[in-house]
From TrEMBL:
Subcellular location: Cytoplasm, Cytoskeleton, Cilium basal body
Keywords: Cell projection, Cilium biogenesis/degradation
A Gene Ontology biological process term: cilium assembly
Record's compositionally biased regions (Basic and acidic residues): 30-55
Domain LisH residue range list: 448-566
Segments forming domain ARMC9 CTLH-like: 60-191
The protein's name in its UniProt record: LisH domain-containing protein ARMC9
Compositional bias per record (Polar residues), positions renumbered to this chain: 636-645
Taxonomic classification: Eukaryota, Metazoa, Spiralia, Gnathifera, Rotifera
Native source organism of the sequence: Adineta ricciae
Amino acid sequence: MADPIDFRINDYIKEYLESKGYSNTSNAFVRERQDRKEPVDKTKSEALNEKEKEREKYENIKEAMLKHLDNGDREEFFQLWSEHIPLEVFTNDASSKSLEFLIYTHFAVYYLRSTTSDKDEQKAQENMQVFRSYIESIRDRSISQTSDLLPLFALPYVPEPEKHAAFQDLFSDEWPTELRKKVWDFLEWVFVGRSLPSLVELLQNGERASHVLVQLNRENEELKYRTRESNRQLKHLTTDYYNLINITMELVESLQQAVLGKTIANDYIDNVCARLLLARAQESQRSSTTSPRPGMDDAYTEKLDFGKIKRDLVNISTSAREKALLLQALRWKLTKAKSDFQREKVLDSFIGCDLLGCRSDTEQRARIIQQLSSPIGSDAYYVKEEWARLINTLASLRKGRNYLSPNEALIICMQKAAVSEASDTLIKQHLLAALQKLSLRRSVQTIMINHNTIKWLFPLLNHTDRLSDYTLEYGVALLMNLCLRTNGRKKCVEIAEQAISVLSALLTHPNQETRPYVNSSLYSILTLKSIRKKAMELNLDSRLRSLIRVERTNSETKGQLEFLLNLLLKGGDQDGRQTSDNEQDNDDEDQDIMEADLDLADKLRATDRELSGETLIKEHYISQKSSFNKILRHTSANDSKSKSTVEPVLQRPTTPGQLRQATTTHAIDTLAQSLALGDMYNSQSDGFESTIFDNSPRKRPSVSDEAGISNDD
């Protein structure tokens, strides 16, 4: 007689066949079991009937929800959503929270779409207000740190979002179709999962366990790699520490001898200096010899043929379209990386092969500069745009900025290429954004100041009606970073009237994202007596008083304006009390920010006969197989994000991407507190100096310190 476990397996098979509609097969299976006198569990059939009824019920609910989604019936959709979607789904699955966010976004813009026949302005306003309330109710920070969703947080605050370039994809015909597919898959997963055949449940549990093991193995490999790197660095730091301790003890003994009147030989001082310089040289050599050659002997990097990649990027025989698609594919390896770890390894491989010739490959650098400087044709435009996007992406990452910053010729070329764009093209936008991000480096600031970037920015910002928000934000942010330098402010003296006029006009620009940079730029240049004198001639004081009188909604903005007015009216040149201009770059505040704008509005599409993205890379540029795919195939987004903070007085260079992320994170962090404390701005009663430029939860340094505006170039 067969084992009882065989009977259970046969029951599972019968249940599966009937659930899938294989009636004839199921009946034949039952007859054969009866011929063998095998007991058939009738309770299984009854349970199957109940499951079938339950499946039909949820199928009807799913169809109703999709219909409400298509018709823009927000209240009806979320009524069914709240009744039939279990709360534990959102607790255990982060992607479900993201989908709910996108659904709220869909209803918020439903009546704003040009394809919507039933226009209803009242419903559009109501849906947008509901979306705004939903955003304010979100307490899960992980959603706000999702790069794909972050730009949508600004949607309720942007007038006429359907005309805004940042939301172009949101108002496309494809977006609601893609969302509907996601909702269908989600509902299918939720509803069908409640009544799965036992055989399917067994298989799914097995696959789930296998996936967990693969995930744990991948994380274990990453941790091993990071541990090896950390141990190597710790070993070197320990060696340097003991060397420095020995040198310090020798210097203390020498100092004691000097106090007693004994002369210290110059040879001894030279020897100490030589030992210190030798330690630094050895550290530099270690970092270059012990690090794996990215893309060559690093187990975590694909074995790409970078020699072929570099040749194809600049070779005359490569068509412009092929170059553009290759540049796009390289950018996607950074913007579409599944984890921060993977993105970092890809970036290391780009830097290791000197992709842009910023280190020693001067021929590669010269050819790239030639492409950026060349006139634009039909296909050549895409090449130039893709170069601008790739450089902007590299500049978004700290290691990328370290790589690009020493290349003075490329930086000058980028500026000239941006200036040469007559209108606000995507090329200009991405080159300007890249320049702004690179301006976090003091050496790059010096290059830009010497090449009159400031004198280009003021005329550009004087025509805000011709600029996208992206150009405007990065333009004023770049201006602020350059005005923090003494030589930058001196450049403003030469065009003082234009500088005051442009910044004065920007004080009332509807884009609130620009306000911190405009205020900080004004603060910087008004520290010069000659500019304050010109500002008084142009009646800037009257304009500030007028703005202070009408500002009733934002106490922070009012405090900033009062502070600027106070600075304008008081006498004496402030530069004498400024700190040194020779301070170093602050790596702790130099963060990696991957913006959605890096891939936004990219119209380059491969035809049916062309390859693009990862397919293009794997087909033409993989030199040998590696363990990379095994390690990273199941890589998921890394939830561990470095904490973003906003410098309260904006006295250090920053980027709009960093400020946006820090502001969003801070707003979500303080939401619960603000509900209990009331208006957080009204609680700041220390006077206008305690509120000026305060966008950060950290304590603001004293205004009298004026630590960020530098003196010596």
